């Protein structure tokens, strides 16, 4: 594996996980919300995101290793950038603005862009595509949960 591929993995992982530092979890506000009884605990959610960020970073590193970042995978890189912005916006919308409907919409767009990323990455490498499936499943779940939280509050 090339050093540049490892750097891509580390950079993507750090970029995706930065929202946790930029937009800290507002525990008091979040705890005060009405939520379904089966809502995962915040520590579980954090652990799942840490794993998913690793999958996203590994998928991107595989795509990079296959072709580099050039015109052959510009759709993937562009959509990953959009997905990244949406992912970062989720924490800001929820924990800083307390905008529950906007959080739901953002989660839905994350899930949609992730589904497209699965196909774009899969065209480069099947493993790269499959690595994004858990991210899609989790963001689909987060979309549903966000809708319920919005509806209950």
From TrEMBL:
Q: Which terms are listed as keywords in the entry? A: Membrane, Transmembrane, Transmembrane helix
**What transmembrane ranges does the database entry give?**
44-64, 76-93, 99-120, 127-150
Q: Which domain of life is it from?
A: Bacteria
Q: Where in the cell is it found?
A: Membrane
* Keyword Transmembrane helix assigned: yes
Q: Which Pfam families match?
A: TspO_MBR
Broad class of where this protein is predominantly found: membrane
Name the Gene Ontology biological process terms.
tetrapyrrole metabolic process
Q: Which InterPro entries match?
A: TspO/MBR-related_sf, TspO_MBR
For membrane topology, the record states: Multi-pass membrane protein
Q: Does the keyword Plastid apply?
A: no
GO CC list: membrane
Tell me the protein family, please. Belongs to the TspO/BZRP family.
- PANTHER family cross-referenced by the UniProt entry: PERIPHERAL-TYPE BENZODIAZEPINE RECEPTOR, TRANSLOCATOR PROTEIN
What is the name attached to this protein's record?
Tryptophan-rich sensory protein
